[in-house]
Amino acid sequence: MTDLALTRPRARLALSPLRVGIVAPLIARTLLVAVIALAFVGGLLATPSADTARLIAHEGGAWTNLLRAMAALKLLFAAAASAAVLWRLGAPISLLRGSGYALAAAATWAGPGLIWGLAHIPLGALLLHGGLIATALLLWRDPATRVRLSDVVALRRRGR
Known about the structure:
two-stranded antiparallel ribbon, 160 residues, mainly alpha, elongated, 85% helix
C-alpha cells in the first residue's frame, strides 16, 4: 500500500463538512432568503404606522412619493446584490463566510424597508449602502467567486 492510499481517507476526513463547517448550497441559499425576508419585513415594521401617517400628513404627498420611489429603486440594488450572492452560493461555503454574506444582505434589505417607513431615512441609507459595499468586498475577496466565474467563461468559450 502506498503512502498516497493511506493519506486519502485522512484527507477526506479532514475536509468533511462537519469538521470544516461547510454549508451545502441549498441550505445556504434557503437561509439567505430567510434572512433577506426577515430583514426587509423588520425594516418595514420598524416605524409604527401612526408615525408614518403623521410624517405623510406633515410633509405632503410629493415628498412621500419621492422617498418611496427611492426606496423602490434601492430595492432593485438590493435584489441585484442578492442575486450575485445567491449565484455565489451555488457552491459550498464556510459558516464564517456565509455569515458575512447574510449580515451584508440583512443590512442591504433592511435599508429600503426603513426608508419606506419614512422615519429612519438616514439609517436606512447607511444600512443599504454599507450592505452593498460589504457584499461587493465579500464577493471580490471570495476565492470561490473566481472559480465560478472561470467556469462560466470556460463554458462560454466552449459554446462558440
